[in-house]
Hints:
single chain, 41% strand, mainly beta
Amino acid sequence: MSVFIKLVEVGDPEGYTDRTISDVAYEDVANELSYAYDLHSGGALRVIRVPVGLPAAVECVFSPGVWFRVQGRWHGAGGSDA
């Protein structure tokens, strides 16, 4: 299962024309790699890259104040979608 993260939306500064990014998705690749997530004790969300046949590694980290919802596969024992 891929990991989908809903980020906290922040208004654009006056005069800034690019849209605010509010969603981030890490898509699995069949028979090659998958993504999972876990939570650091401080509330940081870690996205874990899990290649087939290789050790898992942290792909990226989102600080606690940036994200508010995540769906996907929990990396580790127990847990569920946050």
